[in-house]
Design a protein that fits this description.
24% strand; alpha+beta; two-stranded antiparallel sheet; 29% helix; six-stranded antiparallel β-sheet; 4 helices
């Protein structure tokens, strides 16, 4: 790659270690290369650290890990998906009705309804990890949990 390092080594050095992410579970190709297109296994607290990093504009403990300009660009609409849903650079831009108001988030959504929701206006990161892989529409289950139980509590 451009860095001269394998992606898992580079990510660990530049991103995961500074965030306290110790044991990411990468899927590997038959050639032994870490796959970055999906399937990375992280603990709930690790997912929260990534969400908090973006909520904090790419900084952790006062140090820039991700350029603030990239955080801003990646969490702005780059493509329109559906009513109330746009897509940035690998972030879903979503809206949620909460107590008569609309909350805006940017989110990482994974298989089975797993989700990291970042609500900049509320300065809130919500992580939902599930085992709903065998359920129909697992993301709908997650959204109902968010709008019905979690967000109204804030």
């Amino acid at each position: 790659g451009a860095t001269g390092e394998k992606i898992d080594t580079y990510a660990q050095r530049r991103l995961f270690t500074p965030l306290g992410i110790e044991k990411p579970e990468w899927q590997h190709s038959p050639l032994g290369l870490a796959q970055a297109g999906g399937g990375l296994g992280l603990r709930t607290r690790d997912l929260w650290a990534l969400g908090q990093l973006y909520l904090d504009g790419g900084r952790v403990n006062g140090k820039a890990l991700v350029p603030a300009a990239w955080v801003a660009a990646s969490t702005k609409p780059q493509a329109h998906v559906d009513d109330g849903v746009d897509y940035g650079y690998l972030w879903w831009l979503m809206q949620f009705p909460v107590a008569g108001k609309t909350w805006h988030s940017f989110a990482m959504n994974g298989s089975g309804g797993n989700s990291v929701q970042v609500f900049p206006e509320q300065k809130l990161v919500v992580v939902i990890t599930t085992t709903n892989w065998d359920q129909r529409q697992p993301h709908l289950i997650t959204m109902k949990l968010l709008t019905g139980k979690i967000l109204p509590a804030f």
